[in-house]
Design brief:
390 residues, alpha/beta, Spore Coat Polysaccharide Biosynthesis Protein SpsA, Chain A, 2 domains, 9-stranded mixed sheet, 9 strands, disordered N terminus, binds 2-acetamido-2-deoxy-beta-D-glucopyranose
């Protein structure tokens, strides 16, 4: 059967010859279907896998389709045809939503960012399958800082840059830029990009995902070593210890010099009702988060489409892992400096006599309260529905 189909292709026969061959193929096809369904699947799979490697793959698919219609038009084999149509009605509720009509074995629900060649065997495309993903949201003005940061990530990391200023080709001055993925959309925030381009099924190949700002000082940071510590201490959501340039916000994220990792901190009195809740535990900030694959599957859903700054997200990450105070932590031994360069803030718009960054800052705060209220309402609605639904 496979041989027949292929010879029809390679000889490029005239129409008469082609009709005979397709009819023969059709009869053989119908016969096989009549004999057993499992054979149908193996036959169907064999043909393309041999032919797709040739340049005539389109033609061979065409031949198959011809065979199929010849089969349908033939009265003697109409019963076989009906059987075929009945048995090919597939509905698999456990498939991903929308893909229920496909046989599960062909469903490719997940993807990755691996670069592939346009030639050769697909199975030989990848010499290394990177296990980690690092993204930076960047403007060209920060190129030197980003270059230094990227160099801290080994070849085991896929590098993905989100460009908010439209300048992408300039980055090719860096050697690593050619193997990086560049996504350019004007004036968006990293959470906007993350929601749209880092769907959990798209980044499923990666054990850990770094979603970082562009203004981090990485002199004391090594990514491979960071991963080792995160694994060792079972951190699903983490960040490097933070050495702030000016002012300190949270004690939890401040680097400690005497340990590898910490998961709790003491805050000012009144900040935490219990020692195990944010910002005293189960807490990291959003400038340099690192998520495990499983944690990201949850966090992606927590990110709201319309709230782009991510304010409030840090206090809610704990909802995604259990127990949060053990799986969220700060890696002290690999630490970073927050340089607080004015960056995306300046991409705002001057309004009512206020500087662009002021408008951005106001929106950040507004989003924080919208997010908190939305989450609270969603939780209340859930508990209410559970109470009324026995
Ligand atoms: C095809 O399926 C329908 C209902 O699903 C059934 O009534 C019919 O007999 C089937 N036909 C054949 C040829 O099996
Ligand atoms: C990349 O990962 C492999 C496998 O985990 C490891 O053996 C290798 O040392 C890593 N490369 C670097 C540069 O750390
Ligand atoms: C502490 O608990 C009180 C009452 O349960 C609540 O009103 C307050 O917002 C909580 N404070 C914090 C920081 O969570």
């Amino acid at each position: 059967m496979g041989i027949l189909a292929r010879s029809a292709v390679s000889r490029k026969p005239n129409e008469g010859m082609r009709l005979i061959i397709t009819t023969l193929v059709g009869i053989a096809f119908g016969f096989l279907i009549g004999v057993s369904f499992p054979m149908l699947t193996s036959t169907k799979l064999n043909i393309p896998s041999q032919d797709l490697q040739g340049k005539n793959s389109g033609l061979s698919t065409h031949t198959l389709l011809n065979a199929f219609s010849a089969l349908k038009g033939n009265k003697d084999t109409s019963i076989e045809a009906k059987k075929l149509i009945n048995t090919s009605k597939i509905w698999v509720p456990s498939n991903p939503r929308g893909a229920e009509r496909l046989p599960p074995a062909i469903v490719a629900a997940e993807s990755d960012f691996y670069l592939r060649r346009l030639w050769g065997l697909p199975s030989e495309d990848l010499t290394i399958k990177q296990k980690y993903l690092v993204t930076f949201t960047v403007g060209y003005g920060q190129k030197d800082n980003v270059d230094a940061a990227v160099k801290k990530f080994s070849g085991n990391f896929t590098i993905l840059l989100f460009h908010y200023d439209g300048r992408t080709t300039e980055w090719d001055e860096f050697e690593w830029s050619k193997r990086a993925i560049h996504v350019s959309v004007a004036k968006q925030t990293k959470w906007w990009y993350a929601k749209r381009f880092l769907h959990p099924d798209i980044v499923a190949a990666y054990d850990y995902i770094f979603i970082w700002d562009e203004d981090l000082g990485v002199e004391h940071f090594n990514a491979e070593e960071y991963i080792r510590l995160v694994r060792k201490h079972g951190l699903e959501i983490s960040q490097p210890g933070l050495e702030p340039r000016n002012g300190l916000v949270w004690r939890m994220t401040k680097r400690r010099g005497d340990r590898e990792v910490h998961k709790e901190a003491e805050e000012k009195p009144g900040w935490c009702n219990s020692t195990l809740v944010p910002p005293c535990a189960a807490f990291i900030e959003i400038m340099a988060p690192v998520f495990s694959r499983d944690a990201w599957r949850c966090v992606w859903h927590l990110i709201q489409n319309d709230l782009v700054h991510g304010w409030g997200l840090d206090f809610s990450l704990q909802k995604c892992v259990e127990p949060a105070h053990e799986k969220i932590g700060v890696v002290d031994a690999q630490w970073i400096v927050h340089q607080t360069f004015p960056t995306l803030g300046n991409q705002g718009q001057a309004e009512n006599g206020k500087a662009p960054w002021q408008g951005v800052r106001e929106r950040c705060k507004r989003e924080w309260s919208i997010f908190s209220n939305r989450l609270l309402n969603a939780e209340q609605a859930y508990y209410k529905s559970m109470a009324s639904d026995p």
